[in-house]
Amino acid sequence: MNDKQKLYWLWAAIGLLLCLNLGTLGWVVLKTQQPRRPNAPNADAYLARRLGFTPGQRSRYQQYRRELRTALQPHEDSLRSLRQELFGRLSQPAVSETYVDALVQRIERQHGQITQLQFRHWQQVRSLCTPGQRPQFDRWMDRLVKTMNRPRQPGRRERRNQF
């Protein structure tokens, strides 16, 4: 091979490697920018499809989900306003400890009510299942609870506790 051919193949290899690197970088950027969407439009259908709900069960399940969202909304709004009120006090030089404790207790109460509403919702969904669907539902709930209760890994964003 003469020098001109060697130079041609060298530039071709450099160009190919450059394209591969750009493609890899593009793939990584696109993968990291796509947020996980636990409450995506298909989330309602996921469990129903997984358990093999009949059309009647599916409509009742969707009704239960709508009722849960409606019931949770005031509690979530209250939590937002309580957190805003609490952290809005950071700019003040002195905040009474009793005031902070009272706000934290109200926040805890709201979390407790949300958890209770979610528990009642899942009780309704379980009662909707046929005896044949219940073992699979129970296994699914066990995995969900384990996922929610596993220790948080440093550096990862924590998902909100929503069903």
Automatic annotation (TrEMBL):
InterPro entries reported for this sequence: Metal_resist (IPR025961)
Alphabetically sorted, this entry's keywords are: Membrane, Transmembrane, Transmembrane helix
User: What is the organism of origin for this protein?
Assistant: uncultured Cytophagales bacterium
Kindly list the residue ranges recorded as spanning the membrane: 7-30
Lineage at the top is: Bacteria, Pseudomonadati, Bacteroidota, Sphingobacteriia, Sphingobacteriales
Instruction: Supply the name of the protein.
Output: Periplasmic heavy metal sensor
Q: Which domain of life is it from?
A: Bacteria
